[in-house]
Amino acid sequence: MENLISLVNKIQRACTALGDHGEESALPTLWDELPAIAVVGGQSSGKSSVLESVVGKDFLPRGSGIVTRRPLVLQLHRIDEGREYAEFLHLPRKRFTDFAAVRKEISDETDRETGRSKQVSTVPIHLSIYSPNVVNLTLIDLPGLTKVAIDGQHESIVQDIENMVRSFIEKPNCIILAISPANQDLATSDAIKISREVDPRGERTFGVLTKIDLMDKGTDAVDILEGKSYKLQFPWIGVVNRSQADINKSVDMIAARRREREYFSNSPEYKHLAHRMGSEHLGKMLSKHLETVIKSRIPGLQSLISKTIAELESELSRLGKPIASDAGGKLYMIMEICRCFDHIFKEHLDGVRPGGDKVYNVFDTQLPAALKRLQFDKQLSMENVRKIITEADGYQPHLIAPEQGYRRLIESSLVTVRGPAEAAVDAVHAILKDLVHKAVNETMELKQYPSLRVEVTNAACESLDRMKGESKRATLQLVDMESGYLTVEFFRKLPQDIEKGGNPTHSIFDRYNDAYLRRIGTTVLSYVNMVVATLRNSIPKSIVYCQVREAKRSLLDYFFADLGKKETKQLGSMLDEDPAIMQRRTNLAQRLELYRSAQSEIDAVAWAK
Q1: How remote is the C-alpha of 415 from its chain's centroid?
Q2: pLDDT beneath 70: ranges in the chain
Q3: Hey, which residues does 77 pair with through a beta bridge?
Q4: Is 39 helix (H, G, I), strand (E, B) or coil?
Q5: For residue 549, what pLDDT is reported?
Q6: pLDDT at residue number 577
Q7: Are 152 and 86 in contact (CB under 8 A)?
Q8: Are 500 and 412 in contact (CB under 8 A)?
Q9: Quick one: DSSP state of residue 218?
Q10: Which secondary structure element, helix H or strand E, spans residue 238, and what is its range?
Q11: Which among 49, 214, 226, 560 could disulfide-bond with 241, CB atoms 3.0 to 4.6 Å apart, if both were Cys?
Q12: Helices and strands in the chain: count of H runs, count of E runs
């Protein structure tokens, strides 16, 4: 059973070392789930004397006003033999065998946290005492409740102390050790008053009555100790502390315990209660009760710890890895993040994620519709055909077929295809840029680093702009090639008109009659439609080759080449993570370390059983 108290001691020390003091925070707290005994009492209630009696040593600061200004987590460890010594958590490699030095260190450590302003702090001091004269026990000594502030203290100190005490004892896992002096009316006891508020049925409260030997003659505390005046779930315990004269004379604590036993055994009023009175009985009873409570809480603690570990790991995974300190680590991290982005971008194009289908929609719907809207009929109207044919002939009318006229008519018609071709390039470019922005937003790692996010977005868009320029040149070249070289078979069909009865020696007037010009317009339209049908298939191929394929293959190549030239400082400027996120990750990692340590400790005790 002693392992259980040692287990909680280890977890409490780990909590303090890793910043878990049980106060309200955005992080899960393990401190609040651990069973603990909090010592509560008003000033001059004898609280410090009770603790020293349990320990058997003078070690607590004394004086007027508020002496205890930080919670003191007092962990008692029973050893079989050897010299008594003490250790502080904040001084892990230093042993104190002089308990006067322990008292001074408690005061000094309090001042380090609160300054000399007499203010209070919720950050605990951890003190472990190893002695053959103690039982295994952990107590939390809280500042004494007070009604007035002394000189040098803020008026809010009274409420601050009450709030601190309340924050400890209102937790369901806290056992309350309420210290009340017997020479004062119990109805005015600060400890009983605040304990009743948080534990109205007295199920977690142990009542301790001090200064019984200082009661007025003719009065006693039997009704209180027997539970008649104020009943609690557990029996009241009376203690007789050393007097101030004893303290001044440095009366040995072991001798004081002996005198305490003699007082209860020899007092007619308390003789029948002597077996459950005194500081020795108090320590043993609290140790046994704490073990029982810890044992009952172990299954719930294991479940809570496992659940919290999973939650912490999940959030840490979402926040991403911490930033590397060296240039190589930074470069590797940036490259890995960029690869994640590039992978997501490709998934959009390949249909794993939505968006890539819009590229096909350009080729299947937008481009054909744009080509269909081209007004070739207007370009090949009778007046325009006559005008171009006549102008192309110049001073020498054509002999057989108006070849120059045909060329000009075809070129002037095909040049209008450049518009839809350029529009298709622009449309695919816009889709690719939109997919870049989507991929950036979906790359969780980029959300950590705003500067890198901007750099990657700009680099990807600049690459797309270059690819767009190359695609536009290649696509318009396809149109220009069709204009620059006409299909020979088209011209070879023209002389067949003579074989069908045509006369190439028509007069100039006959050559420009409506039927002749209409036939030219029809032929040119037929040829242009044939070319447009070819371009409808070849333009998408050019765009895919120059834009989509290149975007999948080398979207960030220029960025990677430039990245290798950057210094550590420049790389670090890209990884400018939000300080709040960095702090959150650090806090989560520390809290995860705490919970894993606690899990390991609890499992070790559970398996040992």
Answers
A1: 58
A2: 1-3, 16-28, 31, 63-66, 116-118, 149-153, 392-401, 490-512, 605-609
A3: 130
A4: strand
A5: 96
A6: 75
A7: no
A8: no
A9: T
A10: strand 237-238
A11: 49
A12: 26, 9
Which pLDDT score, from 0 to 100, does residue 494 have? 55
pLDDT of residue 205: 92
Cβ(238)–Cβ(212) below 8 Å: yes
Residue-level pLDDT at 237: 94
DSSP reduced 3-state for 208: strand
Q: Is 94 helix (H, G, I), strand (E, B) or coil?
A: strand
Distance CA(387)–CA(381), nearest Å, equals: 10
pLDDT value of residue 155: 73
Report which of 521, 507, 506, 483 is spatially closest to residue 383, judged by C-alpha positions.
521
SS3 call for 180: strand
Q: Kindly tell me the sign of the dihedral angle through the C-alpha atoms of 213, 219, 224, 225.
A: positive
Q: What is the 3-state secondary structure (H, E, C) of 67-88?
A: CCCCCEEEEEEECCCCCCEEEE
Three-state SS across 380-424? CCHHHHHHHHHHHHCCCCCCCCCHHHHHHHHHHHHHHHHHHHHHH
Task: Kindly report whether the global pTM for this prediction surpasses the value 0.70.
Answer: no
Residues whose CB falls within 8 Å of the CB of residue 592, separated by 6 or more in sequence, listed in order: 309, 312, 313, 316
β-sheet with 125-131: strand ranges across: 91-96, 85-88, 125-131, 72-78, 137-141, 36-41, 174-181, 205-210, 237-238
Kindly report the number of other CB atoms within 10 A of residue 509's CB atom. 7
The amino acid at residue 216 is D
